[in-house]
Amino acid sequence: MCIMVISSVERLPAILQKLTRIDISHIYFHNTDAREIGVPFVSLVPFTNLLVCEDAMLDADDFRTGMLLREANKMNIPVVTDSNLGNASAP
Questions:
Q1: Helices (DSSP H) in the chain: which residue ranges?
Q2: What is the pTM for the complete model shown?
Q3: Which of 19, 33, 42, 55 is deepest in the core (most CB within 10 A)?
Q4: pLDDT, tens digit, for every residue of 36-56?
């Protein structure tokens, strides 16, 4: 399973710990604190099975974060927040 994580570096370890019960082959990580452009993550969304984000990211006005969430919704990719991750099951 391929997972995209949208979070700060500080929240990443806690999110990864919650993901230990899922068989993961790839993790794409979008650091919400980074200001440089970096990898065009929107091109990776079609290859993602699950998108995990910090709770606050659902309402973020950040252009890149918003674009990732819109693309995931358009492609029917499950979007799970950090706090709801414990209740999620692998698709």
A1: 12-18, 63-74
A2: 0.82
A3: 19
A4: 655 677 888 999 999 999 887
